UniProtKB/TrEMBL annotation:
Protein name stated in the entry: Uncharacterized protein
Lineage top rank: taxon: Bacteria
Length: 139
């Protein structure tokens, strides 16, 4: 039922399985590299980039997606680029109150707000950069 054109893809797909699978048995059969795929910051960023790309395709003319990284004190960093920092952390380059900044967070406490905004005519459409495993994904 998973479709690459949807915004929501499951973290783990089990074709033909009904009921609750035995997760320990399933993990025991997986190669070590794949066991934590759904837990990695790289997978989180790759999935977010996919969602933003698909979301952008459905937006009205004159609108673009924007992302804010929410900090624990309530401030919001406008995301220009989002990358992995090791297995479980993310690094954001963006702006906060008009100043450039870099924000690093463990992915378990990392929160984002995605929204649409009107494109300002004098500025070109802005892409958001995502970096995973040395690969750049623009959305």
């Amino acid at each position: 039922m998973s479709d690459d054109n949807t915004l929501r893809r499951p973290y783990l797909t089990l074709p033909g399985v009904t009921g609750m699978p035995n997760l320990r048995e399933l993990l025991a059969q997986m190669p070590n590299e794949n066991k934590h795929r759904f837990e990695s910051s790289g997978e989180f960023i790759r999935r977010l980039a996919h969602r933003v790309t698909k979301w952008r395709e459905g937006l009205a003319e004159g609108e673009e997606p924007a992302i804010f990284a929410l900090m624990s004190n309530g401030d919001a960093v406008e995301v220009h680029t989002l990358g992995e920092d090791g297995h479980s952390s993310v690094v954001v380059e963006g702006s906060l109150n008009g100043s450039s900044c870099m924000f690093i967070s463990h992915q378990s406490s990392f929160q984002v707000l995605c929204y649409t905004r009107k494109i300002v005519e004098e500025k070109p459409k802005r892409k958001i950069g995502f970096y995973v495993g040395g690969e750049e994904i623009e959305a």
